[in-house]
Amino acid sequence: MIENCISEPIRIANVIGGHVHPAACVTGGGMILVVYNKEGGGGKELLLSRSSDGGTTWSHSVSIPTIRDCSIYPGSLTTLKDGRILLNWSCYHQAAEKLWREPQFSISTDEGETWSEPQNYPIVDHTNYTCMRHPVVEWATDQWVCPFYDRTVLYKMQTHEMAAFGDQRNHGMVPIVQTSKGTLISGAPQTNAPVPVGVPGNMVRGLRSTDGGKTWQALGVFPHFGVAGYDLTVLTNDWIVLTYIVYGIGHDGEYSYEVVVSRDDGKTWDFDGAVEVHNPRRRIMGRGWPRTVQIDAETLGTVFYDLEQNQPGGPGVFIVRTSLARIS
Predict the structure, then answer these.
(1) Residue range(s) defining the domain that contains residue 147
(2) CA-CA distances (angstroms) from residue 235 to 39, 85, 109, 112, 150?
């Protein structure tokens, strides 16, 4: 049964269209950071807005100045254990008929006020699907599990090396999270991700590993994956929240966003207690890419974009706040 009691979305910023694809994180000091493209399909600026009051009000968006000479496909934000903020994105490239994307990252040590110069990952066989839309898994200090669309790998920053991860399967451009027990949960809809997306096969609808990714067990419970996929969020109490899109029957469109929780380290998921967090009673235009963060001990925030021209204020990036009491 879906529980209803939806908060009104709060507008973060105005956008134009295309691959807006916002990413979000909460800093160690409680600041919410959101990055996005104002006009996607190769935006020239990655814009950042911040909120110091739990998402109620937002700063004027500013361009991240260290990203230069890049046609941007937006990526992800990760708050690392030591408080640094890791920003990922990819640059579109073309030479004659060859298309590829080059993933890059930058780090902030002051909650997003300033950023390091961009660094490339040590990849030599880029494809047009070498891009990442989800936070990394912090495997060790300066070692990150990176769920690129075309490969899932372990990056070692200190030695600038890329290694195979786990059983070397490609999970695709999906969220992977780790609980305090070391359990890994993957949003992979299939055993191995076809690149580009092909005919669905070997459906697993979520994966779980308790041995560092060496073996995985199919969950078989996550709903339809769709174009924009899922989001996974580990809460401070070690519950895991799955954010997913409800699609129209027979239509290629997003109509609402819901969250469900696992309270037992990802073994089972409370779909009977699913909570609807956003439903505009119409199609959500664009690929909203909902991203959920834990704002504080009592509140979740789900960030998304909506390109509906006729909504008040026009196309925008939004956040909707949800009380954790609704899923407890």
Answers:
(1) 10-322
(2) 32, 18, 23, 22, 28
Enumerate the β-bridge partners of residue 35.
23, 48
**Percent of the chain clearing pLDDT 90 (strictly above):** 88
The pLDDT value given to residue 1 = 44
Query: Is residue 4 in some structural domain?
Result: no
Q: Identify the CATH number of the domain in which residue 317 sits.
A: 2.120.10.10
Give the three-class secondary structure for 239: coil
Residue 270 maps to a domain = yes
List beta partners, residue 146: 153
pLDDT in tens, 237-293: 999 999 999 998 766 689 999 999 999 999 999 999 999 999 999 999 988 899 999
With respect to residue 5, please indicate whether it lies within any of the assigned structural domains: no
pLDDT tens per residue across span 8-31: 999 999 999 999 999 999 999 999
Count how many domains the chain has.
Answer: 1
Integer Cα distance of 219 and 203 in angstroms: 10
196 prior amide bond cis, ω within 30: yes
- The pair of structure tokens assigned to 183 is 């359990």
Phi first, then psi, for residue 82 (nearest 5°) are: -90, 5
How does pLDDT run across 207-216, given as a tens digit for each residue?
A: 999 999 999 9
- Which residues contact residue 149 at a Cβ distance below 8 angstroms, ignoring those fewer than 6 apart? 129, 130, 131, 132, 133, 172, 173, 193, 195
Tell me, yes or no, whether 36 lies in a domain. Answer: yes
Determine the Cα–Cα distance for residues 226 and 229; give it in Å rounded to an integer. Answer: 5
- In this structure, the number of other CB atoms found within 10 A of the CB of residue 241 comes to 24
Q: In this predicted structure, what is the pLDDT of residue 4?
A: 54
